[in-house]
């Protein structure tokens, strides 16, 4: 599968076409619902550490939420990268993103410290517009649009490490 198969509305009042980022490495991540505390912690980490990529990496984040709700929920991040809405779950299906109540329950119970950390940063889920049971997927795409590596999370907070993404962008 190549990266030319993705067109979605973004939170900047436009339409994102993945063809627009050809020639640059890309991290494509499928997240849960817009106010997911775990997802917002991850977005916050990428916003904070984005300068470390030294303009070598595109970051594209896709949420299964209505665009208006996603725009409102992620506005505080002022993200220097794309945040997209896939309310119909179309691309989640194409990329075989898993739904798992068990993996949601597992992460929520065993690692409750992450939810506390998220809430301390103000990421409190007041509205659940989207899917709570979506398990994140990170996809590393090279400059030619070829998927180099995909990581299907083991639970609802599991992603590539930041170091792995940084290493990919630097090679």
Topology:
Blueprint lengths: L6 E3 L5 E3 L7 E6 L6 H13 L7 E7 L3 H8 L7 E4 L4 H5 L6 H10 L1 H9 L16 E5 L5 E6 L9 H9 L1
Helix pairs in contact: 1-5
Beta-strand residue fraction: 15-25%
Gap between N and C termini, in Å? 22 Å
CATH topology annotation: Glutaredoxin
Cα-based radius of gyration, to the nearest Å: 15 Å
- Tell me the count of domains: 1
Counting helices, strands and paired strands, the structural category is alpha/beta
Low-confidence runs: none
- CATH architecture heading: 3-Layer(aba) Sandwich
Can you tell me the overall shape?
globular
Mean pLDDT: 86
- The CATH superfamily is identified as Glutaredoxin
Helix content: 25-40%
Strand order of the largest sheet: 5-4-3-6-7
What does this structure look like?
The strands form 2 sheets. This protein has a 5-stranded mixed sheet with strand order 5-4-3-6-7. A two-stranded antiparallel sheet has the order 1-2. Helices cover 32% and strands 20% of the residues. A hairpin with a 5-residue loop joins strand 1 (7-9) and strand 2 (15-17). It has 171 residues and is of the alpha/beta class. Helix 1 packs across helix 5. The chain has one domain (7-170): Glutaredoxin (3-Layer(aba) Sandwich). It has helices spanning 37-49, 67-74, 90-94, 101-110, 112-120, 162-170; strands at residues 7-9, 15-17, 25-30, 57-63, 82-85, 137-141, 147-152. The radius of gyration is 15 Å and the shape is globular.
